[in-house]
Amino acid sequence: MKIQPSDRFVHQAEGIWKRLNMWIDKARGRKKDIINLGIGCPDLRPATILTDRLSEFVKDTSLYGYPFSELELNNEISNWYKRRFNVDIDPIREVLHTIGAQEGLTNLPVSLLDSEDILLYPDPGYPLYGYLASFAYSRGYGYPLREENEYQIEFDRIPPDILKRSKLMIVNYPSNPLATTTTREALTQLVDFARRNDILIIYDNTYCEITFDGYVAPSILEIDGAKDIAVELHSFSKTYNLPGIRLGFFAGNREIIKILSDVKSNIDFGVFKPFQRLGAFALKSNEVREEVRKTVETYRRRRNIVVEQLKNCGIEFNVPKATFYIFAKLPKHIENDEEFVYNLVLNTGVVVLPGSSFGKNGQGHIRISLVQDENTISTAIEKINQFLTKC
Ligand SMILES: Cc1ncc(COP(=O)(O)O)c(C=O)c1O
Asked: Of 101, 132, 377, 387, whose Cβ has the fewest other Cβ atoms within 10 Å?
């Protein structure tokens, strides 16, 4: 018997990561040194102050029961919202921790959508967004983010028949893969649009702390009326270099939080309590804040190196004010971004992601992740440059 994934999961099982790994193996077979700027996972290690605290928390045997929400984490999330965004958040009813942002992103559409409903998501956008509607047995519509409009949402481009059936919309700024940011004015328009059209919003603010050049990322919950329709999603993976502990959280609309909490209570019991304690500590500690500042400075320096070197490559890109990605447009004569990446990996060992893996509007681009040290990144861009001259 041939065992196959369900139709809902088959696209994911055959996705870009599988192909990329095959190409990497092939390049290794050709004795190429691999420099991986494809994956969006921090290479930086968590601060010692965090790992020291975690060692203490795991020794506390009272924390080994089913890990329902730790009030301490909820309180610190609420305090952090007040300090960081001047937003009041009820720690009991307006917060829910998740098993990484990814789990929240997956289970919320499943909890809210019926088969007639449509999920709106950005294209280009984080690849998981494109699968979520099918997980929820509903339909998805990738709203285009176009360079001509500085990758901002063009509400009037969403067809009326799609709009009528749209129940949930995912919005992500600072954006993966685009590295584009937003403004409070744009978020005000978004909240107005969502309220007028009875659409709920998941605002994925995973990268809000990785910003440069004086840009401070807003929260959608700063906008009047946002709590009526929105929840905001955060992750500990990128800000604190803790992708392995799988901790994220939602804050915002209490009805949405209640629904997800009820659904999750049948699926999982949350994240290991020592990890929740660590999250609470990370949010409140001044020393950790200083470590985050150093992390951001590291990404800023790497960004500057790539920006300087890419200028000579005949590649167009915007200088990002946030995230650790650079989304770059390949020269016009290169028609197929995936084929370009395949040849790049095989001939140079440098791995980036084809823009089309983020949706059809990503075609003709590559995403470069700043997840290697400065020298390695510099070597990789030099190799990309040399390879481009031969294309
Ligand atoms: C935009 C965006 N949202 C969510 C996630 C998931 O983060 P987590 O590690 O918390 O699941 C990622 C991870 O790359 C991301 O880029």
From this structure: 387
Are residue 67 and residue 168 in the same domain, yes or no?
A: yes
CATH code for the domain of 146: 3.40.640.10
Q: According to the model, what pLDDT value does residue 370 have?
A: 98
Please report the atom of ligand 1 found closest to the CA of residue 126.
Answer: 1
| pLDDT in the model for residue 41 | 93
pLDDT mean over 170-196? 98
Q: For the packed helices 48-59 and 286-310, what is the interaxial angle rounded to 10 degrees?
A: 140
Structural domain range at position 223: 48-285
* Total number of domains constituting the chain: 2
Q: What is the mean pLDDT of residues 331-343?
A: 95
Per-residue pLDDT at 136 exceeds 90: yes
Residue nearest to atom 13 of ligand 1 (CA): 40
- Residue 207 Cα to ligand 1 midpoint, Å, equals 9
The CA 170 to ligand 1 mean position distance, Å, reads: 13
77 neighbors 89 (Cβ within 8 angstroms): yes
In the chain, at which residue ranges do the beta strands (DSSP E only) sit?
Answer: 35-36, 95-98, 118-123, 139-144, 166-171, 200-204, 230-235, 248-252, 316-317, 325-329, 350-351, 353-354, 365-369
Cβ–Cβ < 8 Å for 270, 69: yes
For residue 373, the domain's CATH number is 3.90.1150.10
Ligand 1: residues with CB < 6 A are 40, 100-102, 126, 172, 176, 204, 206, 235, 237, 243, 248
pLDDT band at residue 13 under the 50/70/90 scheme: low
| Residue 277 CA to ligand 1 centre (angstroms) | 21
Q: Whose CA is nearest to atom 7 of ligand 1?
A: 101
pLDDT digits (tens, 9 = 90+) for 154-170: 999 999 999 999 999 99
pLDDT band at 68 (very low <50, low <70, confident <90, very high): confident
The residue whose CB lies within 8 Å of the most ligand 1 atoms, and thus the one to mutate among 123, 173, 237, is: 237
Are 177 and 353 in contact by the 8 Å Cβ rule? The answer is yes
